[in-house]
Amino acid sequence: MFIAGQWIDKEVVIEVINPQDGKLITTVPSASEEDVLMAIKEAEEGVKIAAKMPVHERMKVLDEAAQYIENHHERFATTISLEGSKTIREANSEVNRCIETLRLSAEEARRIHGETIPFDQSAGGENRVGYYYRFPIGIIAAITPFNDPLNLVAHKVGPAIASGNAIIVKPATATPLSALLLAEAFEYAGLPRKVLSVITGKGSIIGDILVTHPSIRMVSFTGGLETGENIARKAGLKKLSMELGSNSPVIVLKDANIETAVESTVSGAFCAAGQNCLGVQRIYVQHEVFEKFTSSFVNRTRQYTVGDKMSTDTDMGPLINGREAERVEKWVQEAVFKGAELLVGGVRNGAFYAPTVLTNVPSDCIVAHQEIFGPVVLLYSVADLDMAIEKSNAVNYGLQAGIFTNNIENAFKAISEMDVGGIMINDSSDYRIDGMPFGGVKGSGLGREGVKFAIQEMTEPKVVSFKLANPAIL
């Protein structure tokens, strides 16, 4: 693992397993509490170093790290696919996004602005002039998930470095290798030691220290709602940024282009084996086109190729492990037992779970209101847009949504009334660029990621006011 610029090995290790065949890829160190405390102590010095780095040096490091990844594109993509669930095509796309995230971070480093403040807006302020600027928050603890093991780490590390902070990353236990490769890229790029650590270990051992330590000034977490709530209870007085998943709805109205809607939502439901916080989970289709949409959706789902994730012909690989596939299987079985109709899929083979389509799912089923995080989608027939919006909002999540319609008034009604952090018009919920504000409402989290917006979260404003003895110089 990478602690404050040093590569450290340990006798106690964690096995990294390929979920496709259960074979050992390699091992990584299992960090102890002492390792985390050492990383925090080093980061206390790293904060001072990072804050004093001129902006052009931060930009250079970020650009050179991006270039290193581009030069080793195949190695990064292969690692993503081997340790996780993504097909090699999906992994290549993630590497491209990571490169863009770091380059965006370099660009946004030059745009961390303040502004002047007219102090004479209040009586008695006539002799004052001033401004505010933004300063780094300090040490950031980043806890990242398995489903985007490179780019979601970059979304925390890039803005942290751009804004002059030190950062300690605890990657997902199942997929630590991509984060370690990212540390390698920053080492190559000349990032000063002590600014970045990537600690591999079990959350049960090292998580609480990262979350509760008083020197940690911000926790940036991407993961499940239950874990996020637990972190919030423990963290104390520090900044929290959390993306906690969703149960994303998509609305398809009768005036929509059905072919486009099917293609977009099938991809949105099953990419990365459905292990995607933006993945399409519920689709509300106006009843006039429900039969047509359903038939086309099921046919397209049957064409989805499941198999070897290293093959460029494969559309979908396994889930992250067999336990997750078994959980998805149980949720689907519960829905069918309670009356849901299984249209296609519902078959598990080890860590693989076939793309699955359900309809008539009762509202009290787990899959109806929780995040499935697997390749399962629910189709519902609705009378109109009002009903679709009401049902879309009836869960404790609100990350992103989609609506397919050719009526601009319908689009704006959905924009206004859907309780989400983002809404995609004539696209599925599964659309994101790395420069947009990304986050949700309700149980989907706190704050926003996306490079510019993460930098806002990772900095604080400081107000400066000069009281002048000679106001005539103003």
Number of domains: 2
Give the CA-based shape: globular
Class computed from helices, strands and strand pairing = alpha/beta
Mean pLDDT: 97
Report how far the terminal alpha carbons are from each other.
55 Å
Helix count, DSSP H or I runs of 4 or more residues:
15
- Under the CATH scheme, the architecture of the largest domain is 3-Layer(aba) Sandwich
Beta fraction of the residues?
15-25%
Side-by-side strand order of the widest sheet: 14-17-18-13-12-20-21
- Helical content stands at 25-40%
Rg value: 24 Å
CATH domain class name of the largest domain: Alpha Beta
Largest sheet: 7 strands, mixed
Low-confidence stretches: none
Strand segment tally: 24
CATH topology of the largest domain: Aldehyde Dehydrogenase, Chain A, domain 1
CATH H-level name of the largest domain... which superfamily?
Answer: Aldehyde Dehydrogenase, Chain A, domain 1
Pfam family, one: Aldedh
InterPro entries: Ald_DH/histidinol_DH, Ald_DH_C, Ald_DH_N, Aldehyde_DH_dom, ALDH-related_metabolic_enz
Domain Aldehyde dehydrogenase: 7-464
Family: Belongs to the aldehyde dehydrogenase family.
What does this molecule look like?
This protein has helices spanning 33-52, 55-71, 73-83, 88-109, 151-162, 177-188, 203-212, 225-235, 258-270, 287-302, 322-337, 366-369, 385-392, 408-417, 451-457; strands spanning 2-3, 6-7, 13-17, 24-29, 115-117, 128-136, 139-143, 166-170, 196-198, 216-222, 239-243, 248-252, 280-286, 341-344, 348-349, 352-353, 356-359, 376-382, 397-398, 400-404, 422-425, 441-442, 445-446, 459-467. The chain is α/β, with parallel strands linked by helices and 474 residues long. The chain has two domains: 2-244 and 444-463, Aldehyde Dehydrogenase, Chain A, domain 1; 248-425, Aldehyde Dehydrogenase, Chain A, domain 2, CATH 3.40.309. Helix 2 crosses helix 6 and helix 3 packs across helix 4 (88-109). The protein starts with a strand and ends in a 7-residue tail after the last strand.
